């Protein structure tokens, strides 16, 4: 398996003609986010972990942002709000901006997302726009309409509504989410509802449609499963690079790659060579990188808490130490901030400890690992 990855890495090197060395792009020009005005009305109370250094300031010292995904249901909790405001300069709606959340029936209801957007505005936080097109968040009515009519105006209308409403607050749009699936054969692209209706051109059209409505925001292609040394993830890295190369050669307005970074201790340790090669190739194409959904799934929740937390922290540090060598990184977002608001609780184990804070907002070694990586 290792050998296949090496071959995949070498093939990528040949395809893209990379040279040794990192992409030199000035991160501070585009990656940093201005500190919010703390005197603004609606300011949150001081955070519950005053001893832990705020992640946002550590990140901004390095010319990066730090952010987190927010489950809108948690916004009713003042402790949650204050910790988010303390640590984040940008937030990602974990589900509220997805198509099936906004319009489960044909009618759009923006109230949940509006609450999140107004929380962000009151506290001077920027937003990531997650996500305009994702096979898992297409509402049934839209899937049916797409399959029968293959009418791009359906997508255009959705983009217009969402970008029109939140465009002023959104710094980065995840325009296309998770388009890679080598197991679907062919060119390695996911044979999702959009691909079935429009072929590969759906990706280009999505970016062009977004660019027309969001002339200044960063437009992101966001992907998972790129971190480990398996032939499958090697294929995923290579397929993503090939797709990016095709998009760049056609002048498609994609300017940023979102690396989700759902780390997983059951897969072993992150594969430094594979991640380094991916970062180098992305940088050589002149693209920025955002780490968009960092968290760590544990392999063994039966170990002592200390041991578990140190394994999670070590994996986080290993990953960030690689990606943060590159100057085209804009920032890092974790997929939630504390363990009680983590998708891994429902997916894997309710006991999972894969975010910077525990359920009582005590900073864990993962928090320290992120600080160290930013230093
Ligand atoms: O964490 C999210 C979970 O709460 C939602 O139920 C789910 C479906 O909307 O999406 C999860 O977030 C996913 C993200 O949007 C895309 N990358 C993978 C994330 C975890 O599944």
Give descriptors for this structure.
single chain, about 375 residues, alpha/beta, TIM Barrel, eight-stranded parallel barrel, 15 helices, about 45% helix, about 15% strand, globular, disordered N terminus, binds ligand 9MR
What does this structure look like?
- By secondary structure, the protein is α/β, with parallel strands linked by helices.
- It has one domain (50-374): TIM Barrel, CATH 3.20.20.
- Helix content is 43%, strand content 14%.
- It is built from 15 helices and ten strands.
- The chain has helices at residues 2-16, 27-30, 55-61, 78-87, 99-102, 111-122, 140-149, 153-166, 193-198, 201-213, 231-249, 272-284, 305-323, 343-347, 365-374, and strands at residues 65-70, 90-93, 126-129, 133-134, 170-177, 218-223, 256-259, 262-264, 288-297, 329-334.
- Strands 1-2-3-5-6-7-9-10 form an eight-stranded parallel barrel, surrounded by five helices.
- Helix 12 links the parallel strand 8 and strand 9.
- It is globular.
- The two termini are 34 Å apart.
- Residues 1-48 have low confidence and may be disordered.
- Ligand 9MR is lined by residues 94-95, 98, 136-137, 177, 224, 260, 293, 343.
């Amino acid at each position: 398996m290792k050998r296949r990855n090496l071959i995949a890495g070498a093939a990528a090197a040949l395809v893209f003609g990379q040279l040794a060395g990192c992409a030199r792009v000035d991160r501070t020009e585009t990656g940093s986010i201005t500190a919010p005005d703390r005197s603004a009305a609606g300011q949150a109370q001081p955070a519950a972990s005053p001893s832990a250094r705020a992640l946002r300031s550590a990140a901004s010292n390095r010319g990066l942002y730090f952010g987190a995904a927010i489950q809108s249901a948690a916004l009713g909790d003042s402790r949650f709000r204050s910790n988010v405001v303390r640590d984040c300069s940008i937030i990602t709606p974990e589900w509220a901006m997805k198509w099936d959340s906004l319009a489960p029936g044909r009618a759009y209801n923006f109230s949940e997302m509006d609450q999140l957007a107004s929380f962000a505005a009151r506290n001077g936080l920027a937003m990531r726009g997650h996500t305009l097109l994702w096979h898992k968040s297409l509402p049934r009515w839209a899937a049916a309409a797409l399959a029968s009519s293959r009418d791009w105006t359906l997508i255009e209308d959705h983009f217009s509504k969402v970008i029109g409403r939140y465009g002023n607050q959104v710094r980065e749009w995840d325009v296309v989410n998770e388009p890679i699936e080598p197991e679907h054969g062919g060119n390695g692209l996911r044979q999702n509802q959009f691909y079935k209706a429009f072929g590969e051109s759906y990706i280009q059209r999505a970016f062009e449609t977004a660019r027309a409505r969001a002339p200044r925001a960063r437009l992101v292609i966001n992907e998972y499963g790129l971190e480990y040394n398996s032939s499958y993830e090697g294929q995923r890295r290579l397929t993503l690079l090939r797709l990016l190369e095709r998009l760049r050669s056609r002048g498609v307005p994609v300017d940023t790659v979102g690396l989700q970074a759902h780390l997983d201790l059951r897969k072993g340790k992150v594969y430094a060579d594979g991640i380094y090669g991916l970062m180098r190739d992305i940088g050589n194409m002149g693209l920025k990188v955002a780490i968009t959904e960092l968290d760590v799934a544990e392999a063994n929740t039966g170990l002592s808490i200390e041991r578990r937390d140190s394994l999670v922290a070590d994996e986080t540090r290993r990953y960030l130490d690689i990606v943060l060598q590159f100057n085209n990184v804009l920032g890092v977002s974790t997929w939630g901030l504390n363990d009680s608001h983590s998708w891994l609780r429902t997916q894997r184990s309710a006991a999972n400890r894969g975010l910077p804070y525990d359920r009582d907002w005590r900073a864990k070694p993962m928090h320290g690992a992120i600080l160290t990586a930013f230093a």
